[in-house]
Amino acid sequence: MTLPENRKKFDDLVNRWIVLEESTINEAKNLTGNSRNPMVRAIIDLLRMDSEKHKHILQTIQKSMHSTVTFSTDDLKVVDTFVEKHMTLEKNAIETAEQALEMSSLPIPRLLLSHLLEDEKSHDAYMSELNDIKGYMAKDTD
Ligand SMILES: [Fe+2]
Ligand SMILES: [Fe+2]
Fold it and tell me: Which one-letter DSSP state was computed for residue 2?
């Protein structure tokens, strides 16, 4: 993924990013502990859960940099099934989220729903991009 001379710099950047995500997670956990209001908790959870996701994915990328990753035919089948099922599901989720957002008028639910809608759009784009690079994964299979 990166040239050997850039490996250390990349590692440092990912480490720094993970530390930032951990700060968000810890700070958010402390704050949600101070409120029993479900909406306040949801406002904070929206970010905390993304940070947990980011940390997990960054750690996986980091580990993958220290070994050779290959994809078996079974792995490819799993990815194929994932793309096949989720391309439609995510498009449906966008349509549904747009309708829900249109119907809601209160500021906090609207704020949360609009961010979830952006997530759904990002999931849809992710599935298309993944579909486009599936061939790359098939290059080095057993
Ligand atoms: Fe993040
Ligand atoms: Fe989604």
Answer: -
The ligand whose atoms approach the alpha carbon of 93 most closely is 2
Cα–Cα distance for residue pair 69/140, rounded to 1 Å: 9
141 C-alpha vs ligand 1 centroid, how far in Å? 32
Question: Quick count: other Cβ atoms within 10 Å of Cβ 123?
Answer: 16
Q: What is the pTM of this model?
A: 0.90
142 vs 36: which has the higher pLDDT? 36
Expressed in angstroms and rounded, the spacing between residue 120 Cα and the centre of ligand 2 is: 4
Q: How far is the CA of 133 from the centre of ligand 1 (A)?
A: 24
| Whether the Cβ atoms of residue 46 and residue 112 lie closer than 8 Å to each other | yes
Q: SS3 sequence, 7-76?
A: HHHHHHHHHHHHHHHHHHHHHHHHHHCCCCCHHHHHHHHHHHHHHHHHHHHHHHHHHHCCCCCCCCHHHH
The pLDDT of residue 7 is above 80: yes
Residue 79 · residue 116 · CB < 8 Å = no
